[in-house]
Amino acid sequence: MLFARTPDERFTFADSGLGLDFTYAPRYLDVPSGDGGTLRMAYLDEGPRAARTVVMLHGEPSWGFLYRKVMRPCLDAGLRVVVPDLVGFGRSDKPTRREDYTYARHVAWTKALLDGVAPIDATLLCQDWGGLLGLRIAGEEPERFSKIVAANTFLPTGDRTPPDAFFVWREFSQTVPELPIARIVRSGCAREMTDEVAAAYEAPFPDESFKAGARQFPTLVPATPDDPASDANRRAWAALGKWEKPFLTVFGDSDPITAGADKALQKHVPGAAGQPHATLARAGHFLQEDVGEELGAIVARFA
Which member of 85, 128, 262, 290 is catalytic? Predict the structure, then answer.
């Protein structure tokens, strides 16, 4: 499998004095690529090793940097925090052929990383594709997590038509000549973003050859009943219908793509009953960027 690896110097903004509060040292783990080779996945691992652990999974087209505001309240509460960069994003390796990215491979890559670095009873915090992966994994292997926080995410099976906003986004992502990473993240926020923060989201992608994973993600969301991932997601969704461990939804009030998914999750997952679900004000799709400290405080209390 051919892949690109973003040069380390692209990430020196963390030490630039710009006040980004992202000076955590990356760690790396090789995972099976799915074709006989390996890929290097990056992750952050902060806090006491023996503490209760929160695994934070990002989505499209962000990376672990997205969780910097969320991490601080959790670390201040004495928790351990593990934040992977998905394959194709952040400091992780980026296969350069779009066909090398599949839903099943993303699940396998993420499981392999969790096998290597996360304890079996961690709390899962997942947003966007972090939920499409994390909720799928929780449905397939429920022993991996003791609690789940779902934030602006869902587990689609293709049996219900996604909202119009999703199809607009998918069409844009497949037709725009250059995928504007920072612009995408900015458009998914309800609050202003500085140019320095925008540059940090662009950092993993020196040019278009590094964006195959970001380009492919929108096409992998099951939007029809016969999608290749539909059957596996149906099984995982059915398993979540028996999940009795604590399950919390924290959604932004300004996300047209996942609006209403929190209510569906609350209705379907038994462990959601009686939990202090939250809808955060002036928070868009990337609520970690808009209200990260507030989200982090909620996660810290829950975990």
Answer: 128
Task: Please list the pLDDT of the chain residue by residue as tens digits (303 residues).
Answer: 999 999 999 998 655 544 567 889 999 999 999 999 999 999 999 999 999 999 999 999 999 999 999 999 999 999 999 999 999 999 999 999 999 999 999 999 999 999 999 988 999 999 999 999 999 999 999 999 999 999 999 999 999 999 898 999 999 999 999 999 999 999 999 999 999 899 999 999 999 999 999 999 999 999 999 999 999 999 999 999 999 999 999 999 999 999 999 999 999 999 999 999 999 999 999 999 999 999 999 999 999
Global pTM exceeds 0.85: yes
Choosing from 85, 106, 262, 285, the catalytic residue is 285
Residue 100 annotated as catalytic: no
Contacts of 208 (CB under 8 A, 6+ apart): 178, 179
Among this protein's residues, is 255 annotated catalytic? Answer: yes
Q: Which of 85, 100, 227, 255 is catalytic?
A: 255
Catalytic: 115?
no
Domains of the chain: 3-302 (3.40.50.1820)
DSSP 3-state assignment of 3? Answer: strand
d(CA 260, CA 50): 37
Partners of residue 84 on adjacent β-strands? 43
Residues pairing with 122 in the sheet: 145
